[in-house]
Task: structure prediction
Amino acid sequence: MTRKICLIITPLVLIGIVVIFMGPQDLIEQLSTKSSNTVNASSVLVLAENNGSNLAEKKAKAQAYPQRSRDKVKKEDKVQQQDVKELFEQQKKEVSRKDGNIEEVSDIEVRVEDAFSKDGDKTAFLTFDDGPSPKTTPIVLDILDEYDIKATFFVVGCQAGKNNYLIKEIDNRGHAIGNHTYSHDYNKLYSDREYFTQELKKTEKILKSILGEQYNTRLFRFPGGSFEKYKQPFKQVLNEYGYTYIDWNALSGDGEGHDIPPDRLISKLKDTASGKDNIIVLMHDSATKKTTLDALPEIIKFLKSKGYNFKILK
Result:
């Protein structure tokens, strides 16, 4: 009698063990695949053994997963931190270029008011007027990239509107942009304050339409410079709209004609820069200034040999 009871109880105990390991649903599913409808001890032992092996495997995977996860998180976090750092630096540049109320944060930017301050360093500001133009501006940008130099571009509104991709390229490469009126037509531009104001604001609107409404520049350069007394009323307009104008104290002379030989442009720059610690160099990137492209590398090399650092106006 006792033996019969043991034979009945033993399989039940084994079934209980399997249920603990597998869960009742899994046990039912696996037993249902057996050809026999009877449960014997050997079947239960096999199922328990297989499931124990699966459980051990799952446990090993579960233990390994957190470590892999931590390693992956650490790697992703490192990348993310680097991305955040780069983004922060880019945002600082964006703020510096686009918000006239923020003080300079870049080592290569100098406020117009401080362009001629004497701090013991020799500084050159390369400036290009009358562009952008498809024939000249892209090559100027590539030359500046080659020598790792940033410049300031005083753009004409009508050219900016036709070549908006070049305005974006100038900005994306970290150069400064200034307003150089819309038409550059002396007769119209300086006819009265109202027309001058219209051209100023029209170019401003074009720049915002290309670079975003948040974009602001306080830089302005008068076509022909600000030297004449009759331009005094227009200086007042600039003050009213928050602009600061800047002229130049060195130049290549490329605005004095077409196809001027490169050696003459280089010589002119050397003469006009002589004896000056801070120089604002006037050049042009309009379509007809082909020889400027030939002279620019030599001008950069000369200024570097004289110990000049290159910066942009703000």
